[in-house]
Amino acid sequence: MPTTPHVAILGAGPVGLDAALACADAGWPFTVHEASGAVAAHVRAWGHVRLFTPWELNVFHRMRAHLGDVPQDGVCPTGAELVTRLLRPVAELPALTGRIRYRTRVAAIARTGLLKHEQIGTTARALAPFTLLLDTPDGEDTAEAALVLDCTGTYAHPNTLGDGGIPAPGERALAHRITRTIPDTADPDRWRGTVLLVGAGKSAQTAARDLAALPGTRLVWAVRSGAPDWGAVPDDTLPARQDLVDTSQALADGACDRVTLHTGAHVRSLHAQGDRIRVRLATTTSLREVLADHVVSLTGYTGDHTLHRQLQVHECYATGAPMNLSAALLAASGASTDCLAQPAPGIDQLRTPEPGFFILGAKSYGRLNTFLLRTGYQQVDQVVAAYAAPAHARAAEEAAAP
Questions:
Q1: How far apart are alpha carbons 307 and 318 in whole angstroms?
Q2: How far apart are CA 187 and CA 191, in angstroms?
Q3: How many whole angstroms separate alpha carbon 322 and alpha carbon 312?
């Protein structure tokens, strides 16, 4: 690894921007490749949603040091507030000027001159630079880097509706009519009629709460568990998260007569019926049909693993996350739903068999849903410290040489 490695950072979301600041502080050359035309595209997509974590858990020391005036009042920001008060100002800092390439999507990554199966675990592989295939406004291009930090996130890659995680029959044909992001209910007429909501996680709970508040909406809510606990955490220290659990349980108990909950349910098939969608639901007791005006699928998200298919990345067969990190998380907390209880990442857990390639941020958790932004920032700290240490050692040796 060069003393000052050129770093390619994929994604200008919260973790990608923090990684850029860390590289700037370390004096490393770096480029941020961002597929959209502005920072934090995924956060902006759910800008209407209020987080259940306060500012203190969403701002890291680097951002605070560079910006100075950052909220720390215990309030939980919306995604839009996170962008306007934190992420956009970070992107506009002089340290990042000219370093973010917008509308530049990384299509694939390879090790220059080597195929996936070649030079396994050798110094020759570690010394070969990475080649990035880029889709830019001016056409295809390539770039090289010595260190690659994949911070592309997951929100652009939603899971599907069908049983076992595969698409239900009819789902692919009707994909353009299925909403896979948290609904913005600011315009009640947009969601008038019957809404079928599938999913039980915090995104689905947020959607259920907001849709149930619309007087012109009838909500049919399908969850896979036969006895959902809504991810309740004993003595929860995050009031907003506990509120979601309480609201979901109240809706399940019949608090709103416009909400029907089906537990132990999965989608069997979808068929177009005019401007509506007929959905067959299988529950533990029967088959049901729902004639829906809107279908909202919030069954989770996973990262784009095709980016690194030519690299030597060992992924967990259960979570899809890098193996070392997944094993550490599962060993520490199992199926725990408390994101606050996640262990701080170490560099050994973040390493993959591909030297110099790291998956950071939400994508690093695969199918685990306990990721916090704070965790992503800590991951950046670990990687930068690991690669800065050898450089400092070499500099000290050179200074001490006669």
A1: 19
A2: 8
A3: 11
Question: For the stretch 304-318, what's the b/e string if a residue is b when 16 or more beta carbons lie within 10 angstroms of its beta carbon?
Answer: beebbebbbbebbee
How many angstroms separate the Cα of 103 from the Cα of each of 57, 240, 302?
Answer: 29, 35, 22
CA distance 222 to 161: 11
Q: Which pair of structure tokens corresponds to residue 358? A: 């790291």
Q: Model pTM? A: 0.92
Give 340's DSSP letter: G
CA angle 60, 359, 387 (to 5 degrees): 70
Tell me if 260 sits within 8 A of 142, measured CB to CB: no
Strands in 178-179's sheet, in edge-to-edge order, are 178-179, 294-297, 193-198, 217-222, 259-262
- DSSP secondary structure code for residue 217 in this structure: E
Give the pair of three-digit tokens for residue 22: 């860390």
pLDDT grade for 380, boundaries at 50, 70 and 90: very high
pLDDT tens per residue, range 150-197: 999 999 999 999 999 999 999 999 999 999 999 999 999 999 999 999
